[in-house]
Write a structure and sequence with these properties.
The chain has helices at about 5-10, 30-35, 85-95, 125-140, 200-220, 235-240, 255-260, 260-275, 305-315, 345-350, 365-375, 385-390, 395-400, and strands at about 55-60, 60-65, 65-70, 100-105, 145-150, 185, 200, 225-230, 280-285, 320-325, 355-360, 380-385. It is α/β, with parallel strands linked by helices. Helix 5 runs parallel beside helix 8 and helix 9 packs across helix 10 (about 345-350). The site of flavin mononucleotide has 20 residues, from strand 4 and helix 12. This is NADH:flavin oxidoreductase/NADH oxidase N-terminal domain-containing protein.
């Protein structure tokens, strides 16, 4: 579409310049790129593009590269409404070439938020601003994803930067919290710095299931290309899945993994009925809980073995990708974080269940490391969290780690550093 065609179609106030070539994709440098010394004259576009920059098609959605923004709460909404902070925050990653931008854990109900500042998607009024965000992400040829969530027994906490000591974690009503409306599979608190939840009745479980389904419908209406269900980190679905937090004796709990997974499976089935078949559905799971069996916690937590079983059921129900995270459901967890410390989970799951794609996440901080993970078949894509907060241009800079020339947003091209010889680092 030409500039004049584009400007004719949209009002000047909502006009967004289209990218001719999407940022973060590998292209042959043009003569202009050489003449402006953005590239070494000896540079040759590789015949085999590193996997990190190869597109990935899931159902009808093609994602231009495999560097994806992990969902990250910003605790900056009011009454669940996303605002222009979220537009700029998420928009910057799209502008700078991320293949997929995942919006933070967004509450399917008011009491399903982690903090009073978390975004929500429980009413139609939330849709227009979300639509504005997806429009911008699409204008940069990036894929818009949203994580829909219920915080369960970890709900109603304060914004992290206001918590000066662990005992300040809980948000009481004077801070906009809802201590009387915390729910979970069983009436057991995470620890003394979280509220004690009420055990959900069967009817309330059905209501939550419908909240997830309605949230997915709204996400579809708002233009999100991908929907991810948050089933990790000790929030509601993760609480149901785990033997260390689910002590129910009905069909949603107990020793049987099938029972504990029932809520998630029913949510997936319900969502698949209301979103287009062409739309990918992801689930984030705590693939291991890092909780060993002790006298205090006789069952221990779920392990990758349990997660593989869950992933097999989910794949049959139409889940396309498992976003492989870990932990967060029990204070006794023993984790030793380090570079790529969760990648083995994605790797093992992918080997054991080829029916689903996987995403790896956790301390992935440079292009070489990220590319190696996908090249070695340990994941289909990488989700990057904190590195994107430190460097919103990470999807472009990771290419430089690989000595690769990728497209920058047209508007920024003239700010590109010049590179006159291979020995001059960008
Ligand atoms: C500020 C912040 C907010 C986060 N919010 C979420 C969230 O909304 N949903 C989620 O599943 N994980 C959340 N996470 C976890 C990240 O998505 C990611 O899994 C984790 O930070 C590890 O990846 P990293 O080492 O690349 O940061 C959050 C992490 C950070 C730092």
């Amino acid at each position: 579409m030409t500039y004049s065609e584009q400007t004719k179609e949209t009002s000047p106030a909502s006009y967004i310049e289209k990218q001719v070539i999407p940022a973060g994709t590998v292209i042959d440098p043009t003569p202009v790129d050489y003449s402006l010394k953005f590239v070494d004259p000896d540079y040759k576009t590789p015949t085999k593009v590193p996997k990190l920059y190869q597109p990935l098609k899931i159902r009808n959605v093609t994602i231009k590269n495999r560097i994806w923004v992990s969902p990250m709460c910003m605790y900056s909404a009011k009454d669940g409404f996303a605002n222009d902070f979220h537009l700029v925050h998420l928009g910057q990653f799209a502008l700078h070439g991320a293949g997929l931008v995942m919006m933070e854990a967004t509450g399917v109900s008011p009491n399903g938020r982690i903090t009073p500042g978390c975004t929500g998607i429980w009413k139609d009024e939330h849709i227009p601003q979300l639509q504005k965000i997806t429009n911008f992400i699409h204008s940069q040829e990036s894929v818009a994803a949203i994580q829909i969530a219920h915080a369960g027994r970890k709900a109603s906490t304060n914004q992290p930067w206001t918590i000066t000591s662990p005992d300040k974690n809980k948000a009481d009503t004077d801070k906009g919290g809802w201590p009387e409306d915390i729910v979970a599979p069983s009436a057991i608190s995470y620890d003394k710095n979280h509220w004690t939840p009420k055990e959900l009745t069967i009817q309330q479980i059905q209501d939550i299931k419908n909240d997830f389904i309605n949230a997915a419908k709204r996400a579809d209406q708002a233009g999100f290309d991908v929907i991810e269900i948050h089933g990790a980190h000790g929030y509601l679905i993760s609480e149901f899945l785990s033997p260390v937090s689910n002590f129910r004796t009905d069909q949603y709990g107990g020793k049987s993994l099938e029972n504990r997974a029932r809520l998630l499976v029913e949510i997936v089935q319900g969502i698949r009925k209301v979103i287009p078949q062409t739309k990918p559905l992801f689930v984030r799971l705590s693939c291991t809980e890092w909780v060993e069996s002790t006298n205090e916690v006789p069952t221990g937590g779920n392990t990758i073995k349990d997660t593989i079983e869950i992933s097999k059921i989910l794949a049959q129900e139409g889940v396309d990708l498992i976003d492989c995270s870990s932990g967060g459901n029990h204070p006794n967890q023993k984790i030793s974080p380090g570079p790529g410390y969760q990648v083995f989970l994605s790797d093992e799951l992918r080997q054991a269940n080829p029916q689903v794609l996987t995403g790896a996440v956790g301390i992935i901080v440079n292009g070489k490391q990220a590319n190696q993970i996908v090249e070695e078949g340990k994941a289909d894509a990488v989700f990057i969290g904190r590195q994107f907060l430190r460097d919103p241009t990470f999807a472009l800079n990771a290419a430089e780690d690989l000595d690769l020339f990728v497209k920058w947003p047209s508007q920024y091209t003239f700010g590109r550093k010049k590179r006159t010889s291979k020995t001059v680092k960008l």
